[in-house]
Amino acid sequence: MIAAAKRRRATLYRRLLESMLLMCLVPLFLVGGAAYVQFQRYASRMVLDQQERLVLNHRNFIESYLRGRSAELAAIANQYTLEQLRNGELERAFAVIQQGAGIYTDIGMIDDRGNHLRYVGPYNLEGRNYSSAEWFLKLRTQDMVISDLFTGYRAVPHFIIAVKRTTPTGYWILRASLSTDYFSQLVERIHVGSTGEAFLLDRHGLYQTKTLFDSAPLQPSHFPFLSPHEGVRTVDLNFRGRTFLCSHVWIMGDQWLLVFRQERAEAFAPLHRALWTWALITLAALIVVSLATFAIARNLVGFVARADAEKENLHAQLLASSKMAAIGEMAAGVAHELNNPLGIIETLRTWILDLMPEKGPAEADVPEVIDSARKIGDQVERCRRITHDLLKFSRRVESERTLTDINALLVEMLQMVEHRAKADNVAFHLEAGALPSIVTSPSRLQQIILNILNNAVDAMEGRGGTVTVRTGMRGGAVEMVFKDTGCGIPEENLQRIFEPFFTTKPVGKGTGLGLAVCYGLVQQMGGTLEVQSRVGAGTTFTLTLPATSAEPGEAH
Amino acid sequence: MAEARILIVDDEKEFRDTLVKLLGRRGYDVSTAQDGAQGLRVVLRGGIDVVLLDLKMPGLSGIDTLREFKRISPGLEVIILTGHLLKSTEQEGMTLGAFAYLTKPCTVAELVQTIEAARAARAAGEPSGEEGLS
After folding, report:
1. What residues in A contact B19, CB-CB < 8 Å?
2. Which of B20, B90, B22 has the alpha carbon at shortest distance from B55?
């Protein structure tokens, strides 16, 4: 019984853990998972948006810078005449726009046939002819040109801004080359982290500015997205085994492609850090919830264990008290059976004394004295039989589970109960069938049988009757049938006779525990106890016990 | 005092026989019955002063016999003499009007003393000598 309770508690513990963990963890995972996915989406969008906004701002900055430069040149071209500039004003104007910052490398004037009329700068370019240069050809139809990076006569990569001044007789051109270093710095000024950088490509994919990893200006970039498009686009690109997040936008119409790239891992690093923190918090919550669940389940099962122990205790007390009641009832009957011969012995003793005056018995009285003494012997033998049976009975009281011959046990018990029931004129018959010995607790079986037999005797209500006990095998089980010719049990009571405290005996005569305890014992032994009854005809109790008695958890 | 007439109602033959001899020797006129029904017939014939009554007997129980005795002859003194030790049985018997409750084994001296007390009580409760059927 204790082992069964232990198994039951283990199951309870497991079920509690399962259901509580499920109850706590599933919502945690659902809420946490949804939040994780949402946050990741939102944060990724934020990273992309930020990068695209950066690129757009940078484009605006570069475009306004270049427009500023071309406006400067246009202002000089409009302010001065060709002659003024050729005669020294060019140097002054150059100094003004240079602002000591080295924005420009040089400046020069070209006539409408492409001849370099005047030059201020480090290279010796005066007198060169540009009539076949790309920018010169464009100026036929445009007022202003910003060239792509090219090497030109000076054999150094550079690009130029040229503005056209139209006069009544034709036009002339003011041309300045931008300082490549200065411009590169402008473009590159939006360094982000250790890998974030911006650079320019021309329509053929040639670098226009320097980059961190590869390339000098004019080297091919192999950048694959060179077709014109509106707005910013962002793509992942593999570059030297690393993945970069590239945002690109066309600037100055579609002359150059402004690219900003940053290694993906670095771009998303803050997001990943946030997600890691989130995951750690979730993990901590999981651990706390799990530990709490374990503790609560352990606690609850502890309560149940204590309740089980109390129940076990109570059950043992109930068993003991009902056993005492059954034995007490029998003891009263046995005492009566002992008192009868003792009463006879006492009267015979007095009779012998009557016949034995001081001087010895009269001759005629001697046979009478001897007869009385013999009769005392008979009564003593009668008492001895009763005490002998009692002794056999009591040997069973403490015995544990053992191989038991049911028929032999019944013989002993019936002898015992016969003493008790003799005065009630109850006769007992045992119809013993062939039975195997079974492993069971004789003391418990005795308690059950004693209860049934006591009830059978009580059912005679002093009128006398017969109790027939029949044994045999039925369907692999040992069957014992106790049939009495007593008063019977009314239908309405038959339902309740195994209930604790149900009794029809007068107050003080029965506890109402006998059959309830028997029922519990029989169930523990893996058997069944059934009752059939007809009022006025008698009652039949049928007790079955498994022939191969396993009785789980019976051991102490 | 005239010779007292005693009836022993007990299912134990050995007990009845020995008690007849003992009480006879002590000057009593003793009749016997082996169960309640026979005892009632003897009482109905009249002339019994004191009954010694066992409780556990086949057939009519001692308590029922006592009830009948008291019904047909209210002045009859009944001494319960039984091996039954239960307090509740004793109370029941005394309530039904038994004179005394003696448990076996008891000494003959004790028994004679109680019979005498019962006779005295009967004499006191019945001075006119009213007898027999009522």
Report:
1. 347
2. B90
